[in-house]
Amino acid sequence: MTRQVLITGGAGFVGSTLALGLAQRYPDWQITALDNLKRRGSELNLPRLKQAGIQFIHGDVRNQEDLDPVALKPDLIVECSAEPSVLAGYASPGYVLQTNLVGTINCLELARQTQADFIFLSTSRIYPIKSLSNLQFKEAETRFQLLEQQSLPGASSQGIAENFPLNGSRSLYGATKLASELLVAEYAEAYGLRTIINRCGVLTGPWQMGKVDQGVFALWMAFHYFKRSLKYIGYGGTGKQVRDFLHVSDLLNLIDLQIHQLSKLAGQTFNVGGGVNNTLSLCETTQLCQEICGHSIPITPLPASRMGDVPIFITDSSKVMYATGWQPQKDAKTTLTEIYEWLHKFEHQVSEIFL
C-alpha cells in the first residue's frame, strides 16, 4: 500500500535515518522530510535525502503555516523534531518550549485535520531526575551497576520500565516531552487517531553530529578520531556513569514494525532503548574507542556534576519487545566501529562540525 509519510525533524540524525531507511524499503511510499536545519550538520543530509527521492521542505514545526494539511496530506506523521538537549532547556527555555511543545501541538493539529497516524518520539528524560539519582547501585571497576532491589516501582537491575513514578521535576526538556505525550493521548482519544509513543534512550550511530550534552557516543568516537581532548564530568570524574544505547538502525527496524502493527499497538507508550545488554560507561567507551582508533587522547576528570545529570540510566524495553517481537541487533563494538568508519569515509565533511 502506498503511504504519504511526513517525518518532522527529517534532516536530523534520527529523522533522516528513518526517512532514508523507509524510502529504501518501500520505494512506492511518498516520504517528505521537514526540518528547520537549525542543528549544525543537518544540511549534510540534504543531498542524501534528494538522492533517495525524498521531498525536503525547509520548514519549522513552530510555524503552523509550514504544516499545511492541503499541501502535505500525510496519512502517517513520524514526529522526530525536537531540541534534544537538557542543557539547552536551561539556557534557552523559550526555544525548547516552542519547538518541543508548541511544535508537537502543531503536528497533532495536522494529524487531526488529515486523520493521519502519529508516531511520537519522546525521551527517557520524562522520568524525574531526583528519583533516577536515588536509584540503588554499586560501584564496580569500570562502571556504576544497578542493584536488583529498588525502592521504587518500575526500577530493577534491568533498568527503568514504563511504570516508574513520574512525580517530580525532570528538566524543561523532559517536561516539554511529557506534556507532549499527554497531548498525544488526548488527541488520540478526542479525534480517533492511531498513535504510538516511544520513549527513547540514547540513540547513536553514523551521521550523528554528537555534542557534549547530546549524542555522547558519537562525540566520544569523533574526538578520539580527531585527537581532541575530553572530560569526565561529574561523579568524582571517574567516567563510571552509565547509559544504554540503541543503534539508530535498530530504531528504524522497530518503527517499521510499529507502522505495520498500528491497529494492535495504537494508544500505547513504550520505553525504547538498547537495554541492559547494550550499556556503556564513559571509561568503557574510552577503552573501545582506543581499541578501534588505535590511539589515546587526554581526558580530564572534573568531579563536580552538571545540573540535570544522573549517574546511571538503563532502558527496560521488555514491554515493546514482548508486544512486537523486536530486539536490538547491534552491540557496542559494532556501533562504535560503524561510527569510526563513517568518520573516516566522510572526514572532510564532518571535521568542520566536530572541530
Give a quick rundown of the structure.
The chain has 355 residues and is of the alpha/beta class. It is 41% helix and 19% strand.
Question: Could you say which overall geometry the principal axes of the C-alpha atoms support?
Answer: globular
Largest sheet: 7 strands, parallel
Q: Averaged pLDDT, please?
A: 96
Give the helix tally.
Answer: 14
CATH fold label of the largest domain: Rossmann fold
CATH H-level homologous superfamily name of the largest domain: NAD(P)-binding Rossmann-like Domain
Count of domain modules: 2
- In spatial order, strands of the major sheet run 3-2-1-4-5-10-14
What is the end-to-end distance? 45 Å
By CATH, the architecture of the largest domain is named 3-Layer(aba) Sandwich
Integer-rounded radius of gyration: 19 Å
Describe the structure.
Pfam families: Epimerase. InterPro entries: Epimerase_deHydtase (IPR001509), NAD(P)-bd_dom_sf (IPR036291). This is NAD-dependent epimerase/dehydratase. Belongs to the NAD(P)-dependent epimerase/dehydratase family. Residues 5-273 form the NAD-dependent epimerase/dehydratase domain. The protein is of the alpha/beta class and 355 residues long. The protein has two domains: 1-127 and 170-200, NAD(P)-binding Rossmann-like Domain (Rossmann fold), CATH 3.40.50.720; 128-160 and 206-244 and 276-350, 3-Layer(aba) Sandwich (Rossmann fold). Helix content is 41%, strand content 19%. The protein contains 14 helices and 17 strands. The protein has helices at residues 13-25, 46-51, 69-72, 86-91, 93-114, 129-133, 172-191, 216-225, 248-260, 262-265, 282-293, 318-324, 332-345, 347-354, and strands at 4-8, 30-35, 55-58, 76-79, 117-123, 137-139, 144-146, 155-156, 159-160, 195-200, 202-204, 230-233, 242-247, 268-272, 279-281, 299-302, 312-313. The strands form five sheets. Strands 3-2-1-4-5-10-14 form a seven-stranded parallel sheet, sandwiched between helices. Strands 11, 13, 15 and 17 form a four-stranded mixed sheet that branches. The longest helix has 22 residues, at 93-114. The radius of gyration is 19 Å and the shape is globular.
